[in-house]
Amino acid sequence: MGSELIYRGHETQPTADAYSPKPIKPWFSVARGVHYLLREQRLVFVLIGMAIATLVFTVVPSSPTTASIHNYKTYDSVSGLAELGELTGSSQVARRVVYGGGIGGVNSGGKVPLGLKRKGLRIVVTGGAGFVGSHLVDRLIRRGDSVIVVDNFFTGRKENVMHHFANPRFELIRHDVVEPLLLEVDQIYHLACPASPVHYKFNPVKTIISFQLFYKTNVVGTLNMLGLAKRVGARFLLTSTSEVYGDPLQHPQVETYWGNVNPIGVRSCYDEGKRTAETLTMDYHRGANVEVRIARIFNTYGPRMCIDDGRVVSNFVAQALRKEPLTVYGDGKQTRSFQYVSDLVEGLIRLMEGEHVGPFNLGNPGEFTMLELAQVVKETIDPNAKIEFKPNTEDDPHKRKPDISKAKEQLGWEPTVPLRKGLPLMVSDFRQRIFGDHKDVPVSDVSSSA
């Protein structure tokens, strides 16, 4: 018989039942974790560890955080009083800086765990090869930050920062802030602008425009740096000036005083340029939520000042060293206040890291007439120096003295170096640069800055 294959499509073939596992109960994973903790006394060890950690962070005192400016040294300042700690009789105090909280070295937040080091910031300093900028760079590098100096060397000098060239955390860019610049940074210290009468009167158009396009260093330069701060979310500090008060009718000058400025005078390129820069800074703060700080700097002196920049302290010191008569303009009864550069640097850092926008007066309220200043310079350098009187310059302010109550209260800052203690450091630096006299420069001071 032959086999027969019959297809019956309408008939269904029996199939085996498919495997279906039991659903996992929702509390199974919780019960398993609890089981694991309860076995072998694991829970006891966890509780003991938590107790020990709590004890360590509550009983062990945190490291001291008090800030002191006396850890400040100048690179090419000279004489036996190279450290400002010796000037004031104070010892150096360790400093911990907390960015985004607290003021200066004061920690306003919680305790930092033992062994945890402060994270360095990436900071740009425009005008960082200049007198004040180079001292600020020294402080930032010394505390562990990475610093980018931007300078066109109109008034700055490479010699002021060359001791950092071998440091991998230091960069130098030859650039004019009038041109845009793209960088990734956490903070911007904007110091770029000719600040002495000789320099800003030499090129008044360039001075004012750099701080909108019709003004160039004060307007365009500030606009470019504010734009950079807005793009990268950096905090921006503008170094303005006491010149925004002009020839003041209020004495001493407080930050709420609007000033008495001649808008068409020979000094107006600088005065009005800085006033415009403050306006732009506050507009970016209110309109674009840029974090800003404004410092109004009063007369500052110290090592690395330009020797012939026309400022009264540098004029007197250079003339006395060269055995020339000290030039006093007018009757010599105009008053000024003089702060040492380390005091200013401390104030700028505290302002940048504080929580207040400003503006803040940063200056020494000690007031001297020009004749009194000349007498101090004579006592320091040459008691036999002569004084020569000349006609006063146009729009020269009659009185200038800062009210620093706001800085004392909100920043915890005030100057500590008196004129008679800081001036010898400047004199030694000028003597070295004018005569090439290196015998007064302590080797330890130079190497410590490097």
From TrEMBL:
Residues 385-412 are annotated as: Disordered. Signal peptide: none annotated. Its main location: Golgi. Residues 125-424 form the NAD(P)-binding domain. Pfam families: GDP_Man_Dehyd. It is found in: Golgi apparatus, Golgi stack membrane. Coiled coil: none annotated. One of its GO terms (molecular function) is UDP-glucuronate decarboxylase activity. It is a single-pass type II membrane protein. Catalyzes the NAD-dependent decarboxylation of UDP-glucuronic acid to UDP-xylose. Necessary for the biosynthesis of the core tetrasaccharide in glycosaminoglycan biosynthesis. Belongs to the NAD(P)-dependent epimerase/dehydratase family. UDP-glucuronic acid decarboxylase subfamily. This is UDP-glucuronate decarboxylase. The lineage of its organism: Eukaryota, Viridiplantae, Streptophyta, Embryophyta, Tracheophyta.
